[in-house]
Amino acid sequence: MAEIIQKDGTWTFDGDAVRIVPGRDKGVGLLRQTLGEVLVPLRALAGISYEPGRKAGRLRLRLRDGADPLLQVTGGRLPEASDPYRLTVEPDRGGVAEYFVDEVRSALLLDQVDAGPADSYLLPGPALPITVGAGDGTVAFDGDRVSLEWSWSAEEAKKSGGAREFRVADLRSVEWAPSRGLEHGWIRFALAGAPVQSAPPKYDPYTVELFGFKKDPLMALVAAAVAVRMPHPAAPEPGPQTGAKSGAKSGAQPALGSAPAAEGHDTLLRRLRELGELHQAGILTAEEFSTAKAAILGRF
Questions:
Q1: First and final CA of the chain: distance in angstroms?
Q2: Integer CA distances (angstroms), 267 to 93, 263, 297, in order
Q3: pTM of this structure
């Protein structure tokens, strides 16, 4: 068990997941406060780092590409204050942060977690129902239906058509973009069958335009809540259909016998060798090596 408690929040690691609880410090953005507690399973992690600083350090989790719907829809464009996977660390707690990093890295090595892209979401996304009012409209989502209502600041082209409602099953995509300088942001819903080239956000009846105010990042939570209920962009295409009929036709039979067991045996032996190398390199202590070795031997 490893834990670090700061004004910015509390991170706890139990060997299987990192639990992130946002703090109440003024530097904690509204998105992090609204998102609340996040549980990141070990298999969703690509890495962790600690960056010391004279005034404050930074503890950062790096998630596998495609593992988190929030990071998927924001594409690295979240402001620092809104990033749930960053923790500000006071200078005198640097040692605790380094210990936390070592514990997570050791677990990643022991479990041989694949740091490559994920083809399915490994985090559940924001809690539902969710309603956010920002820019020229309000978006509400209950897990199935999305509704858009327009504020007084919306263009007449939007307001004249009234509120919009549609189901997740009707969507082709959902996109979020932050405001940058004089350029407004937006959250855009593209319906299946609609033209790819949509109207500008100001006039698009399926887009809420964002003006760069405090609540804008909350629209990213809406986008994430919708995206996690849509097909993952990296999901493998369905392969050729196979079944009993095709198997009978070709004379193929399901593989039986000792081959799968032998493959599992070889995998366990390889993991034992890797554990020994980690122990010899000083990455694992004698106690950690003995515990991990016993766990692997128990699977033979």
A1: 27
A2: 39, 6, 12
A3: 0.79
